[in-house]
Amino acid sequence: LDFVPRADGTGGKSLDRFMWSGCRANYGVRNGKVAFAMRIERGNLSRVGWGTSSAALALGQCDQSFGYGGTAKKSHNNQFLEYGEKYTSGDVIVALLDAAAGTVGYMKNGKWLGTAWTIPDWLRGVPMFPHVLTKDCDISVFFGDREMHRLPPLPHGYRWISEVADPVPSPWGDTRAEALAQGVEGVKEEETEDASYDDGE
After folding, report:
1. 183 by DSSP, 3-state: which?
2. Does the structure show a pLDDT above 50 at 96?
3. C-beta separation of 59 from 125 below 8 A
4. Interatomic CA distance for residues 136 and 122, integer angstroms
5. What is the mean pLDDT of residues 145-171?
6. E strands, 17-162, where?
7. I need a surface site. Which of 33, 36, 98, 146 has the fewest CB within 10 A?
8. CB count, 10 Å around CB of 107?
9. For residue 188, what pLDDT band results from cuts at 50, 70 and 90?
């Protein structure tokens, strides 16, 4: 596999210097105002955001995922638009989902960057899962259940995803290897067939 998650679920790294590698959390949400964070440990080619359980692991490449990359671009449905600020090693990016309003926004090192995407009506109420995509990059993820001193305060009304009382389990369950294998295969096909993939980030 091109993306290797840590055994404790606190992050992971991509093995291939030239191939994008994606991963989603095993639990998501369908209600409320929730957040999770990603810290770049090494490298800067990454995206972070939210996607459904049916979304391709190539975050931002299909119509069911919403990402923000280190080159200061947001991505959805294979569209790459200027957004926010560039980020690199040491930066902490918080991905915020307001399920009721249907919006996705971000913070960089505690600074609010604004709303990035409005979720289309047909996806309202569909569970969204924390989602990352990396290339030659090591990351740590934070769901609010550890190292709270490393995390910035959240905007009013938001809470960390670990505090959600009724998280939605992924249909993949704990078969992480199977999910990653299918997703990484999809990433390779998209990268081969769509030259704009690398251009986006």
Report:
1. helix
2. yes
3. no
4. 34
5. 89
6. 21-24, 27-28, 33-42, 46-51, 65-69, 73-76, 79-82, 92-98, 103-108, 111-118, 129-134, 138-142, 159-160
7. 146
8. 23
9. very low
Closest by Cα among 80, 63, 61 to 72: 80
Confidence of residue 83 (pLDDT cuts 50, 70, 90): very high
Q: Is 50 exposed, middle or buried (0-12, 13-18, 19+ CB in 10 A)?
A: buried
**Residue 99, beta-bridge partner list:** none
Cα distance between residue 64 and residue 190, in whole Å = 15
Secondary structure of residue 189 in the 3-state scheme: helix
Identify residue 109 by its one-letter amino acid code.
Answer: N
- CA–CA gap between residue 17 and residue 136 (Å, rounded): 4
Nearest-angstrom CA–CA distance, 75 and 18: 19
User: Hey, is 67 helix, strand or coil?
Assistant: strand
* Predicted structure pTM score: 0.84
